[in-house]
């Protein structure tokens, strides 16, 4: 037999010894390995032990008929497929349909013509070849999918751990500073994100807080936020670029414009880094409510006055990491006791609504008005985010990270 033959082993099932001898003689002459069975029951036992490539079975046999044998064969659990040709003297459409329904692949009318039998076997070989090729491709696809699943599970496990690391950059979501308070919201659209919020205080009545949005989102952006978390550390003041040590005794807050310039110089100097980020960074004097702010391409912060009015502040500015040696300006904000300052990322204003449009700043004000009038701190931010989830498109969901920093000034 040629090595590339698809059909090698043939099972001949017939209660007539003469008919089997005629068939076996021809099949062996053509190079097939032949196994004989004189009944359907015996043939089924052979198939249970070793499935042949081709079955040639008579229809009419005592005991188990060829049709019943075919049904039993197809019901056997097997990953391989054997081609089944049924010999019959019946030629009616009803009988043919009955045979096909039982699982037969082809029919030959008795007495069997040798040339026609060889042609039908050749046709069966082509079908088996395609079936086995398809099975092999399915096996390869299954193995590939299994490997991809294992890789995905490993990546997913790493991302879960990465999220824990990223969450450690924001050790506390709310903190009181005297009578005032800073609260933080950080909701990545995936396991990890490119937004960062934080706060730090080098001493009484001195406070710094910020909201950062790194370009893009995902692993690369998350790595950048980890780096920025070190630059603006709330625990290690000697590493915090927003602070400087004076008289070798205490730390003081640098001016926001100076901080933006320092971060821009560091990011531009790093070759190979294409990411940039937007930022709103503020320092506050808790004795009088005086806030100094730099806005570097970040959405305009909003002041929520005690009397219920709201106003956007800021002059826009250029994102950090795009242009070297660019100067950054800062603005002065004066808060009265009971006023609040909200910094937020464009995950709010660029959220896609159910009508396909973006929320925009005006829509953000609507969400703020829906919050309970004097909710404070974390409750306000959580309610604000919940309001966002109610109006955004359910089809697209969160397409960007959402973050916010809320400063509530309550007087000295």
């Amino acid at each position: 037999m040629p090595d590339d033959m698809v059909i090698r082993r043939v099972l001949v099932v017939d209660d007539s010894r003469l008919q089997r001898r005629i068939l076996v003689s021809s099949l062996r002459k053509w190079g097939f390995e032949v196994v004989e069975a004189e009944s359907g029951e015996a043939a089924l036992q052979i198939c249970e032990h070793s499935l042949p490539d081709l079955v040639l079975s008579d229809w009419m046999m005592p005991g188990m008929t060829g049709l019943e044998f075919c049904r039993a064969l197809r019901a056997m659990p097997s990953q391989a497929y054997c081609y089944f040709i049924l010999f019959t003297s019946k030629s009616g459409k009803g009988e043919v349909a009955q045979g096909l329904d039982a699982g037969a692949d082809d029919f030959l009318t008795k007495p069997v013509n040798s040339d026609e039998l060889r042609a039908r076997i050749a046709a069966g070989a082509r079908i088996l070849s395609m079936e086995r090729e398809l099975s092999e491709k399915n096996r390869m696809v299954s193995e590939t999918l299994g490997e991809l699943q294992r890789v995905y599970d490993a990546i997913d496990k790493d991302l879960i751990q990465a999220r824990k690391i990223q969450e450690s950059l924001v050790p506390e979501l709310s903190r009181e500073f005297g009578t005032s308070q800073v609260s933080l919201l950080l909701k990545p659209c995936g396991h990890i994100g490119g937004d960062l919020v934080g706060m730090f205080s080098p001493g009484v009545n001195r406070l710094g807080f910020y909201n950062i949005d790194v370009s893009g989102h995902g692993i690369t952006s998350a790595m950048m936020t980890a780096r920025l978390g070190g630059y603006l550390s709330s625990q290690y003041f000697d590493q915090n670029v927003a602070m400087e040590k004076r008289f070798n005794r205490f730390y003081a807050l640098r001016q926001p414009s100076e901080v933006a310039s320092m971060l821009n110089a560091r990011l531009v100097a790093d070759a190979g880094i294409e990411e940039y980020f937007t930022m709103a960074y503020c320092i506050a004097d808790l004795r009088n409510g005086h806030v100094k702010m730099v806005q570097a391409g970040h959405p305009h912060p909003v002041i929520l006055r005690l009397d219920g009015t709201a106003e956007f502040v800021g002059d826009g500015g250029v994102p950090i990491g795009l242009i070297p040696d660019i100067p950054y300006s800062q603005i002065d904000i004066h808060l009265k006791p009971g006023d609040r300052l909200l910094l937020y990322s464009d995950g709010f204003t660029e959220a896609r609504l159910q009508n396909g449009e973006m929320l925009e700043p005006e829509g953000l004000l609507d969400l703020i008005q829906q919050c309970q009038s004097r909710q404070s701190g974390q409750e306000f931010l959580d309610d604000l985010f919940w309001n966002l989830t109610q109006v955004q498109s359910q089809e697209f969901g969160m397409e960007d990270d959402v973050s916010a920093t809320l400063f509530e000034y309550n007087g000295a």
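The domain at 170-408 is CATH 3.60.40.10 (Phosphatase 2c; domain 1). The two ends are 98 Å apart (CA to CA).
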